[in-house]
# Entry
Amino acid sequence: TLVETIKDYVEKQNNQSLKGKKVIVSAAGTREPIDPVRYISNRSSGKMGYAIATEAASRGAEVVLVSGITNIKAPENVKLIKVESAREMQKYIEEHFADCDITIMSAAVSDYRVKEVASQKIKKSDEVMTIELVKNPDILKGLGEKKSDKQYLVGFAAETQNVEEYAKGKLQRKNLDMIVANDVSQAGAGFNVDTNIAKIITRDGEIKQAPLMQKAELAKLILDTIEEKMNK
Amino acid sequence: TLVETIKDYVEKQNNQSLKGKKVIVSAAGTREPIDPVRYISNRSSGKMGYAIATEAASRGAEVVLVSGITNIKAPENVKLIKVESAREMQKYIEEHFADCDITIMSAAVSDYRVKEVASQKIKKSDEVMTIELVKNPDILKGLGEKKSDKQYLVGFAAETQNVEEYAKGKLQRKNLDMIVANDVSQAGAGFNVDTNIAKIITRDGEIKQAPLMQKAELAKLILDTIEEKMNK
# Structure
């Protein structure tokens, strides 16, 4: 209704709670080439990260969105940097990290890349084939090591089993302030759907269980929680 | 202009040159899972195949479009079957092949699949990792072996070098009636662009060099050539 539209508009104008803050959001999946035609990737759609970038921008933050592969339209008032591989993503995130207040790493970064990328399309020949992979840099861990006390760092854990346990371990191991954990094997959670079911776990041990909700709503809840914890 | 719109409409109504024909089109890239999150795929966007399906339907054909992964909207008047892996694609194409007049295989089918797909997300641990692949069935070759003299079979060759030579070999080897060859390393050709630069090579040895053109235009040229050759 018109009344709701106006109410939303006024609320948005008023809630400039991230004004003056610089926020980096990484989103979507990266791609690691095998040859000029083939690649390894993952099912991340980018919807969660784009929703967070949109919400942070609407709260007045200066947002840098470093995005892997997705067809989602660029959000308004966001600096969008499109990348393909994990190492490209790392380069742009690290370029912006030093003066950044909040970093939210929702991208599904490829853990491994192909050891030797072929410069021409590989012809199929043998009945079997092996692809040798080497580990990519752990971008999130690197940020956790270098972040200052004033910088707030958020990771994501998309798992198919032991979600909470694994997420808590990752928060510790990578020196995060918050981790958003979801079980991507559940219907309505995870990849390429508009909803999510997540646990927001913070460094102080608090766990917020978010019910099935729109990713746009979850983005608000994540940013509300970050603001609440940073202002403590 | 309105005049052009009406002209186009009348032309479309008149050109029912594929009325009574059943056409299978395969389009887009297939995906081969590594685990529930990661997969191997390729850069095919599906634009060429969708353009062919659209054009064939507008000429009155009964069109079955067996499509891998793409965000393109389903064309009108086409039976769309969405699949993920090469083996799924094979299943649906073979289901429809027996009573089909024209089969146009523009999909970029994964040559290999992962030997053992993990049922849970693989945790990264080692510095290096190898993925073992096994060959997928060669769908096009299988169709070439079983096709009757009345069935017209078209393949595509997306190459980065020795395009024409390789395409001619593929036409022979797989018993095709036509192959559409393009050099995907050229600007304006190949993956995820709206244009293409292709060679249409037919069994009789004729080669049509199509200049840079919209994929919708190339679709018309391909179907014109098929109709011309079938009516000889």
Remarks:
- The helical segments of chain B are 2-14, 47-58, 86-97, 139-146, 163-173, 215-230.
- The radius of gyration of chain B is 18 Å.
- Chain B has a mean pLDDT of 93.
- Residues 201 and 207 of chain B are 5 Å apart (CA to CA).
